[in-house]
Amino acid sequence: MNKPTISFEYFPPKNEKLAQTLWDSVPKLAAFDPSFMTVTYGAGGSTRDNTIDVATQMHEKTGIPIATHLTYINTPRKELYALADHLWEKGIKHIIALRGDMPKDLNWPLDPDADYFQYTSHFVAALKARQDFEISVGCYPEKHPDAPSLDKDIEALMKKIDAGADRAITQFFFDNNLYYDFLEACAKMDIKAPICPGLLPIHDFSSMLRFASTCQTTVPDWLVEKFDAVKDNEQDAKKLATELLIRQSEDLIKNGVNHLHFYTLNKCAITDEVCSALGYQAKAA
Ligand SMILES: Cc1cc2nc3c(=O)[nH]c(=O)nc-3n(C[C@H](O)[C@H](O)[C@H](O)COP(=O)(O)OP(=O)(O)OC[C@H]3O[C@@H](n4cnc5c(N)ncnc54)[C@H](O)[C@@H]3O)c2cc1C
Questions:
Q1: How far is the CA of 239 from the centre of ligand 1 (A)?
Q2: Nearest CA to 71 among 99, 93, 92, 102?
Q3: Most buried among 21, 23, 213, 272, using CB within 10 Å?
Q4: Closest CA to ligand 1's atom 2
Q5: Protein residue with least CA distance to atom 37, ligand 1
Q6: Domain boundaries, the chain
Q7: Which residue of 144, 189, 217, 259 sits with most ligand 1 atoms within 8 Å of its CB, as the best mutation to test the pocket?
Q8: Which pLDDT tens digits describe the chain residue by residue (285 residues)?
Q9: pTM, rounded to two decimals
Q10: Catalytic residue positions?
Q11: What kind of fold does domain 5-277 have according to CATH?
């Protein structure tokens, strides 16, 4: 059985302490030789400059290909083109192209506007036309919260792939059957690009619950019960999170996935144990 390729997502740290955690984690996870690592953009108030700075440093420190996330909402096309050119010049040739979350003063769907992109598929096509970027996009096994139905959301995904996206990375999920059903629905729509599962290590169950509620990700009752049983013991909670993620990944591998994407939350604990347990060898520094 072929081992899937792997990738790791990070976010730009907001302070010195978080920067320490990030830069401790990056070399440890890079040692697993991921096919790429990504740096988020805009999520949690980080700035574009933080993202480019972290991405560039990560590339210099590890030599691993880096992708930066890039969101188009509220940013004029001209600015995005300049940014894309800058990324290309800096050697960042892979973009995770996204809409970004809706600001309170805008309504979805966006009106057509000559100065702004309306849909992610338009953004993907424009990036591809600008430079020969590798492009990944997001996708949502339980549908995006703004989508009227899963079918409509899969149509939107199809448009992003037709516009030139090389792969889609899923929102995190805990029930693999949701992912397998999603793959089947995408196959029916003749989507051929890889749909890579995005996996979330649970470092803090309460914050995960808040995040899952925003994303409308299902948290199964059995997961709530298991974490409830270890809520007073940090070590047991970490052990449980690690075991569950190993089990989830093993099932995905058994079912033939070609790539696993880990939302590291900048921490190497859990993700490194999971990768080791799955048989990935960390190279010596
Ligand atoms: C892997 C991953 C990484 C992420 N990283 C970040 C990040 O770094 N920073 C950040 O701010 N956010 C990030 N997000 C969150 C993302 O920006 C939000 O979920 C955003 O609301 C949707 O962006 P999108 O491009 O994935 O969705 P889209 O594909 O744009 O879909 C959004 C809505 O529009 C609809 N839609 C799309 N295209 C069409 C069309 N042509 N016609 C009709 N309807 C359409 C969809 O059905 C859906 O309802 C990430 C999400 C994922 C899955």
A1: 32
A2: 99
A3: 272
A4: 138
A5: 156
A6: 5-277
A7: 144
A8: 679 999 999 999 999 999 999 999 999 999 999 999 999 998 655 677 899 999 999 999 999 999 999 999 999 999 999 999 999 999 999 999 999 988 889 999 999 999 999 999 999 999 999 999 999 999 999 999 999 999 999 999 999 999 999 999 999 999 999 999 999 999 999 999 999 999 999 999 999 999 999 999 999 999 999 999 999 999 999 999 999 999 999 999 999 999 999 999 999 999 999 999 999 999 876
A9: 0.98
A10: 9
A11: TIM Barrel (3.20.20)
